[in-house]
Amino acid sequence: MSIFTYNGSALVAMVGKDCFAIASDRRLGVNFQTIATDFQRIFKIHDKLYVGLAGLASDVQTLYQRLKYRHNLFQLQEERDMRPETFSNFVSATLYEKRFGPYFVQPLIAGLGADNKPYICTMDSIGAIEHSKDFVVGGTASESLYGACESMYKPDMEPEDLFETISQALISSVDRDCLSGWGGIVYVVTPDQVIVRTLKGRMD
Questions:
Q1: Which tens digit of pLDDT belongs to each residue from 47-70?
Q2: Which of 36-40, 133-137, 169-173 is least confident?
Q3: Which Pfam family, giving just one, matches this sequence (predicted)?
């Protein structure tokens, strides 16, 4: 079994009309044994930028602390928030410099850039970036998430439609993956507000 699947995870980010949503499951497991049902995989960098980290739980927390620390330094020096494109290149460089002893994580980055244009991307554990204009997925449930998102996604969704779509995709996908599940959490980010909702799913 791969070290990337050791704790299990399901992550998805999706683009709407001047908004984006990012969602994850809440299960922390050791292989097939559930340890916790409120594990955090989505982290706020600033009001319009979020990062989701799928993979080994200890590396998820270590990498987030390092990214947040470096972004705080950037804010102090530049007196502004980092743009999503800049942040994704920074995460990529951070992962690549550790390529001989990598963090066992798969990041998803979602943010609102210039003119509130949504930006999403994902990358592998050594920082190879893959950009997308509709959705990106990660974690052990990524195969079923691809299928669900392909069938449900529509361009230019309003925030409520986007929430419904990403929620249905997440819940239906984790039902097909025994290493993720136990509900989910969804962040819908618009230029004016951040909507956070917790989903209830099958608890088995």
A1: 999 999 998 999 999 999 999 999
A2: 36-40
A3: Proteasome
Tell me the domain boundaries of the chain. 3-199
Domain 3-199 has CATH 3.60.20.10: yes
- Selection from 102, 101, 119 nearest residue 45 by Cα: 119
Residue 64's contacts (CB-CB under 8 Å, 6 or more residues apart) are 43, 51, 53
In this predicted structure, the answer to whether residue 1 has a pLDDT above a threshold of 80 is no
Q: Is the dihedral of CA 69, 3, 84, 192 positive or negative?
A: negative
The dihedral through the CA atoms of 72, 65, 40, 166 has a sign that is positive
- Taking the model in full, what pTM does it have? 0.91
181 CA to centre of own chain = 15
Residue 154 CB coordination number (10 Å):
10
Residue among 18, 1, 7, 10 at smallest CA distance from 158: 18
